[in-house]
């Protein structure tokens, strides 16, 4: 009995040993297969990784190639292209003292360019960072020591002060608090009156707010134009104007008392004459002229130097056919001699007095032009539409000035006046010849 039990136990143990041996053998085979499979996966991964890195390398090379072949543009009147923003530029503004050009971009910076560097090969700029947001609009203060921005995400105005360091460079400091949120629709434009008395903001619905410099709303205007397409403060600082879906431009005077206290916003006058909605408008530097561009395919020049309180209406000086589209911008040179109009990525410059088309630039930017303005001296026209800022010589302005001075010379009777005009004509002609003789990049 004991012997048979021992034999049975031995058989069981033997069977267990065999089972263990078989299990180990099978596991070794599984491990070998797993190892081989892992090696195969590793090899495949290496191939995939190699292919991916090769693809990434190719894409990187293509990106460099694309970067190298970014939108290029050349024209005889192109003075320079200001490059520094890593995102698209959305707004431009010249300081009242003529020294600076401000630009803002979705790269979260505002850059300040020196206008005296426009004709240099290198264009240095100073950068103000917009913390936790980016600016879509920028406007200088009248004293050129501060600027305001519109915050894309904050939907509010933020003020930045500019202070000079000991080395002569500028530093920027944002105000502690932004203006309160008041607009319910996307913003169109902001501005500071040259008088320094108020700030304006306008949105795409029919709202315009007039603010004091501390962020308190002084008055709100309903334009009753169904939608606004543009709004701005006149250079004289008296008026706020708007245009939109309706075919007229409406102008209000922002009135203050003798002690500087705000009184009211009063309707001043309208510009009536277009047969369709108005895309945009612009003032001359003295606010005595306005230019409008409309969906009806024309631009109009107006004399706005009128006594509207005596019911005197602005009068139309000229109507000229032109190409325009939704989003078109218009600029009037400070002296009122040149009209510039954008149509998509194209730009046209007209003699304001004759209506003659003098210059056309096609494909100025890779996207449509979103801002357009002359510097305060009328020497340059600048525009934005992608990451670069194009700076053009105002050749039509030189030609118009020369023609005007030649007409004055014919009528001049005083010898000293004749000599002065002859000298000015000579200088203007020399400047124009220099511009036209410059090599095209």
TrEMBL record:
<keyword id="KW-0732">Signal</keyword>
<dbReference type="InterPro" id="IPR020472">
    <property type="entry name" value="WD40_PAC1"/>
</dbReference>
<feature type="repeat" description="WD">
    <location>
        <begin position="271"/>
        <end position="303"/>
    </location>
</feature>
<dbReference type="InterPro" id="IPR015943">
    <property type="entry name" value="WD40/YVTN_repeat-like_dom_sf"/>
</dbReference>
<feature type="repeat" description="WD">
    <location>
        <begin position="180"/>
        <end position="214"/>
    </location>
</feature>
<feature type="coiled-coil region">
    <location>
        <begin position="402"/>
        <end position="438"/>
    </location>
</feature>
<dbReference type="GO" id="GO:0005783">
    <property type="term" value="C:endoplasmic reticulum"/>
</dbReference>
<protein>
    <submittedName>
        <fullName>Transducin beta like 2</fullName>
    </submittedName>
</protein>
<dbReference type="InterPro" id="IPR001680">
    <property type="entry name" value="WD40_rpt"/>
</dbReference>
<keyword id="KW-0853">WD repeat</keyword>
<keyword id="KW-0677">Repeat</keyword>
<feature type="compositionally biased region" description="Basic and acidic residues">
    <location>
        <begin position="56"/>
        <end position="69"/>
    </location>
</feature>
<keyword id="KW-0175">Coiled coil</keyword>
<dbReference type="InterPro" id="IPR036322">
    <property type="entry name" value="WD40_repeat_dom_sf"/>
</dbReference>
<dbReference type="InterPro" id="IPR042410">
    <property type="entry name" value="WBSCR13"/>
</dbReference>
<dbReference type="GO" id="GO:0030968">
    <property type="term" value="P:endoplasmic reticulum unfolded protein response"/>
</dbReference>
<feature type="region of interest" description="Disordered">
    <location>
        <begin position="50"/>
        <end position="72"/>
    </location>
</feature>
<dbReference type="Pfam" id="PF00400">
    <property type="entry name" value="WD40"/>
</dbReference>
<feature type="signal peptide">
    <location>
        <begin position="1"/>
        <end position="25"/>
    </location>
</feature>
<dbReference type="InterPro" id="IPR019775">
    <property type="entry name" value="WD40_repeat_CS"/>
</dbReference>
<feature type="repeat" description="WD">
    <location>
        <begin position="82"/>
        <end position="114"/>
    </location>
</feature>
């Amino acid at each position: 009995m004991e012997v048979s039990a021992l034999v049975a136990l031995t058989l069981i143990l033997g069977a267990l040993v065999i089972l263990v041996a078989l299990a180990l053998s099978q596991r070794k085979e599984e491990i070998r297969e797993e190892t081989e499979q892992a090696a195969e996966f590793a090899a495949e991964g290496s191939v995939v990784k190699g292919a991916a890195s090769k693809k990434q390398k190719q894409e990187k090379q293509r990106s460099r190639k694309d970067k190298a072949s970014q939108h290029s543009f050349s024209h005889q009147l192109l003075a320079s292209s200001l490059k520094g923003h890593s995102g698209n530029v959305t707004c431009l503004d010249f300081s009242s003292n003529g020294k600076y050009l401000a630009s803002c971009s979705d790269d979260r910076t505002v850059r300040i360019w020196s206008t005296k560097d426009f004709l240099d090969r290198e264009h240095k700029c100073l950068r103000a960072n917009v913390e936790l947001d980016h600016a879509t609009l920028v406007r200088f203060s009248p004293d050129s020591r501060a600027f305001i921005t519109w915050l894309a995400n904050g939907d509010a105005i933020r003020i930045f002060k500019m202070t000079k360091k000991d080395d002569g460079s500028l530093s920027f400091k944002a105000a502690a608090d932004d203006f309160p949120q008041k607009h319910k629709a996307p913003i169109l434009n902001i501005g500071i009156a040259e008088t320094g008395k108020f700030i304006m903001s306008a949105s795409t619905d029919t709202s315009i707010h007039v603010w004091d410099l501390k962020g308190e709303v002084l008055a709100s205007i309903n334009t009753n134009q169904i939608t606004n397409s543009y709004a701005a403060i006149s250079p004289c600082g008296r008026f706020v104007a708007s245009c939109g879906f309706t075919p007229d431009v409406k102008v209000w005077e922002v009135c203050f008392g003798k002690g500087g206290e705000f009184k009211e916003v009063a309707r001043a006058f309208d510009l009536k004459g277009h047969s369709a909605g108005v895309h945009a408008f612009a003032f001359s530097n003295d606010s005595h002229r306005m230019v409008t561009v409309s969906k009806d395919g024309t631009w109009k020049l107006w004399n706005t130097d009128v006594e509207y309180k005596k019911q005197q209406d602005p009068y139309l000086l000229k109507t000229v056919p032109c190409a325009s589209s939704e989003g078109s911008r218009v600029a009037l040179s400070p002296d009122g001699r040149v009209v510039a109009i954008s149509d998509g990525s194209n730009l046209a410059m007209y003699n304001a007095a004759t209506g003659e088309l003098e210059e056309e630039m096609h494909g100025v930017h890779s996207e449509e032009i979103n801002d357009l303005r002359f510097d305060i001296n009328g020497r340059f026209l600048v525009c934005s539409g992608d990451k670069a800022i194009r700076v053009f010589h105002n050749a039509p302005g030189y030609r118009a000035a020369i023609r005007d001075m030649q007409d004055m010379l014919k009528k001049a009777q005083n010898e000293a006046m004749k000599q002065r005009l002859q000298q000015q004509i000579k200088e203007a002609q020399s400047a124009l010849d220099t511009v036209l003789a410059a090599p095209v990049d």
